[in-house]
Amino acid sequence: MENQATDRAYRIGQQRNVYSMKMITRDSVEEKVLALQQRKQAVIDATLDTDGQVIQSLEWEDVQELLRI
User: Fold this and answer.
1) Which of 17, 24, 39, 54 has the fewest beta carbons under 10 Å from its own?
2) Where are the domains of the chain?
């Protein structure tokens, strides 16, 4: 949802630079959610990587973490 909002800020024909900042408070729920999103994105990126080395190092716990809500 945040990526979609950032994309909306930069429209076709935009002439000026657009900056999107996300401010997170230390030791907050948002910080934990961001860390979880980053871990899941890393697992997704690893599975889509074409060199195959990362896929071989993927462990079952990584897959379970990706599927966890």
Assistant:
1) 17
2) 24-69
Q: What is the pTM of this model?
A: 0.52
CA distance 37 to 15: 31
Local confidence band at 54 (pLDDT 50, 70, 90 cut-offs): low
The DSSP line for the chain is -HHHHHHHHS-TT--S---------TTSHHHHHHHHHHHHHHHHHHHH-SSSHHHHH--HHHHHHHH--
Confidence bin at 52 (pLDDT 50/70/90): low
**Cα–Cα distance for residue pair 39/31, rounded to 1 Å:** 12
> Length of the chain in residues, anyone?
69
